[in-house]
Amino acid sequence: MAIENCTVFTDFILLGLSGRRDVQQGLFVLFLLVYGITVIANLGMILLISMDSRLHTPMYYFLSSLSFCDICYSSTISPKMLADFLSEQKKIAYNLCVAQMFFFGAFAAVECVMLSVMAYDRYVAICNPLLYTVTMSRRVCIQLVATAYTAGFMDTAIFTYFTIQFSFCNSNIINHFFCDFPPLLAISTSDTTTCKIAMTVSCSCVGGSSIITVLLSYSYILTTIIRMKSAAGRRKAFSTCASHITTVAILYGAVFFMYFRPNLSYSTDTDKVASVFYAVVIPMLNPLIYSLRNKDVKGAMIKAVGTKLCTG
Count of CB atoms within 10 A of residue 145's CB? Predict the structure, then answer.
């Protein structure tokens, strides 16, 4: 299509999760509750780790970083989605759409890399305990977190650059509840082949390296645990990994379902449900999983509550 015949859209219209007004009101209440729990639980985790000296270890430093990432991750989607539930027209300006798409993709990539960093931390703690304090020094921990953010933002910047070159001549209606790469590619009138290749390569590099790190780390961890003679030692080793394994399984399971299925169709209700799960629900689940399954975190919570009651 010739550029001169292309209608220039200054905003997009998001169809959202439902067109029914009564359903939207119910969804507003539900997702407001989910977002509230997400922010409070993750902020609580960050404050708890910063206040309790027993949690000033590399594992909890990474967990605190993961909680911060979850707040940012969820906040790129939830506020706009909540506002749209109460709006007649779910419009989003082109620039805001690109920004939402970029920051959501960036924090999602950061989360994947952070989970691989946490897997490596568990590998060092269990397989090389005598070298743990040296290997996972404060400087190394800061460098690993910085690497996660650098990789995540650079990865997303690559296909964001290609996406902003696209023309949207036929439609500005996005059949989704937020601006994600696949729905935008679906309505573009430009040739998206280069962008799809760039997306596949960059996601494979970041996501693939993260998955390989997790698998290799837990392969060595499992081998080490099996060789342990003490049953108590095996239980302790498993307990320190259980929360992280649960988080990894949930996140990667949802991402694989959404992005690595054959014959992808990003306009179906199934895809929207999957997107809700990994974009909105998972950031809420992470701090709950770690607080419910981790004895150190539960102990710190009890101590904090007890101190508050005594001073109150």
Answer: 21
| Residue 66: band (very low, low, confident or very high) from pLDDT cuts 50, 70, 90 | very high
**Cα–Cα distance for residue pair 173/125, rounded to 1 Å:** 50
Residue type, position 279, single letter: A
224 and 198 Cβ atoms separated by less than 8 Å:
no
Sheet holding 173-174, edge to edge: 91-93, 11-14, 173-174
| DSSP conformation letters of 39-67 | HHHHHHHHHHHHH-GGG-SHHHHHHHHHH
Handedness of CA 31, 36, 37, 43 (dihedral sign): positive
Residue 206 one-letter amino acid? V
CA dist 286 and 246 (Å) reads: 9
**Terminal Cα distance for the chain, rounded:** 69
Q: What is the pTM of this model?
A: 0.86
pLDDT at 267: 45
Q: How far apart are CA 265 and CA 268, in angstroms?
A: 6
- Take residue 227 and report the two structure tokens written for it: 């060789």
Query: For 197-255, what is each residue's pLDDT tens digit?
Result: 877 777 778 878 888 999 899 899 888 888 887 777 777 777 777 777 888 887 777 76
C-alpha distances in angstroms, 117 versus 3, 18, 52, 228? 46, 38, 22, 24
| CA 153 – CA 102 distance, rounded (Å) | 8
What single DSSP character describes residue 12?
Answer: E
If phi > 0 it is left, if psi is from -120 to 50 it is alpha, else beta; for residue 263 that is left
Exposure string for 16-33, b = 16+ CB within 10 A, e = fewer: bbeeeeeebeebbeebee
Written as one string, the DSSP assignment of 159-190 is HHHHHTT----S--EESSSS--HHHHHHH--S
The predicted model gives 276-285 an average pLDDT of 86
